[in-house]
Write a structure and sequence with these properties.
Elements: H1 13-19, H2 27-51, H3 70-77, H4 97-102, H5 112-122, H6 128-133, H7 143-153, H8 159-164, H9 174-184, E1 187-194, E2 205-211, E3 220-224, E4 234-242, E5 245-252, E6 266-273
Antiparallel strand pairs: 1-6, 2-5, 3-6, 4-5
Length: 275
């Protein structure tokens, strides 16, 4: 709390009596002075209770290290008791990072940070280079470093390596197995809606193309007709006519003209196989 307010006399009763010797003292002024005296005394009592308990002893925590005299501090710090005392709790009593990592000082206090720094120096973690090198015997491996070491020892094949199928030092993932099988069992499928006109009689033909990226001339083509099939007497065939292009030809073997699917747009499917 704030310091007590000193009592200051605000009225001269001696002066009053000198001027009014036969009259009593003025009651309002007397009450005011007594009230001021009461307030000053109460503040002194409150201030005293802040430092003194009812048993006449000092309140707890009133005397701090900073409040002690230098002589008292020296006496406490020089105590022969080897336990930590208040005098030891000052900045120079705590270990530095160098002292904590050295681990030889026996007269310093360790903080949680200094403890971690000491452990880190005793159990340093491996770098990625140390982990992949696999020759360091003085550092600790984390889960990430273990994975990096395994990846280095058992590297995963790239898509190109999987498709080539020649590496004996790489591991194939499920995706790379698929890539390799796709390369060995190439199958390119494409569907497209086609509308045909009239096919002339006795050997007449009509042709249309479907773009199939990746198709190579000479590869096999399987032609998928709609569920309704194709009119009797018409023959459909498909082949890779050029890179990325499949051609479909319909030939009429009857004596009269025929229009496939009555001229309606119909979906055809082709599958180009490279095996």
């Amino acid at each position: 709390m704030a310091d007590p307010t000193p009592y200051t006399i605000s009225y001269s009763f001696a002066g009053w009596q000198a001027v009014n010797p036969d009259r009593p003292l003025p009651a309002p002024e007397l009450d005011n002075e007594l009230s001021n005296i009461q307030s000053a005394v109460q503040e002194i009592v409150d201030a005293l209770q802040d430092v003194r308990r009812a048993d006449a002893n000092l309140q707890n925590s009133v005397v701090t290290w900073d409040a002690l005299s230098d002589d008292v501090k020296v006496k406490i710090a020089g105590d022969l008791d080897d336990r930590i005392v208040v005098g030891d709790i000052n900045p120079v009593a705590f270990a530095t990072q160098t002292e904590s990592e050295g681990g030889v000082a026996n007269d310093k206090l360790m903080t949680p940070l200094r403890g971690k720094q000491q452990l880190d120096s005793l159990r340093a973690f491996s770098t990625q280079l140390q982990a992949t090198g696999g020759a360091n015997n003085a550092t600790v491996m984390t889960p990430l470093r273990t994975k990096e070491q395994l990846d280095a020892l058992r590297g995963f094949a790239s898509e190109v390596e999987a498709q080539a199928g020649t590496s004996l030092t790489k591991v194939s993932s499920p995706q790379r197995v698929t890539d390799q099988l796709d390369a060995l069992r190439k199958a390119l499928k494409k569907s497209q809606s086609l509308t045909w006109g009239s096919v002339g009689a006795a050997g007449g033909t009509l042709e249309q193309t479907i773009a199939v990226p990746g198709a190579v001339a000479g590869e096999r083509v399987a032609l998928g007709l709609p569920a309704s099939g194709i009119e009797a007497g018409l023959v459909a065939m498909a082949w890779v006519s050029a890179a990325d292009t499949v051609k479909i030809r319909i030939t009429n073997t009857t004596a009269g003209a025929l229009t496939p699917h009555a001229g309606a747009a119909t979906t055809y499917s082709v599958t180009v196989m490279g095996f």
